[in-house]
Amino acid sequence: MIKINFNKEKSIAALLFIVNRLKSADLHKISKILYYADQKHLVKYGTPITGDDYCALDHGPVPSKIYDIFKAVRGDSLIPTDEFDKYFSVNRSYIVRALIEPDLDEFSESDIECLKESLEENGPLPFDILKKKSHGKAYNSAHHNSKIDIEEIVKEGGANKEMIKYIKAVAENNCVFCQ
Prior knowledge:
mainly alpha; 5 strands; globular; 3-stranded antiparallel β-sheet; single chain; two-stranded antiparallel sheet
């Protein structure tokens, strides 16, 4: 299994980027937009945007550490909120509102490209369509509530064998993805 390293600052910037463009969104929509943005970036460029682990929950893939951040801001976690409540507000229905603009310096041009593509493709979709769309081969390859293997995510996204080899090589040799 390919191990990835979570980039907290870039993940917060990605969340702010998405929520500011949607004005407000629920955690489900944000999770799916991030999932497909990370998938696109991995398939095209060999690296993720957020570096988060995606878990196979009931309504589709959910970014594990980002979900923990939102639970903390909402008050449903033991994680202190001081670090995150300046960025977001999250109500009881998991509607997220951005409190500031994202730090665009966190992104490469390719990060922004993939975030915008995922927003265009998935932002307008209703809950039931997003849920169905995200329950693909990668999702179904994982046990319920377990991590989805990055290799399965990129295969589903259309990565060829050379790109999968590249992603593995980067993970093994450069530790870009190491935890």
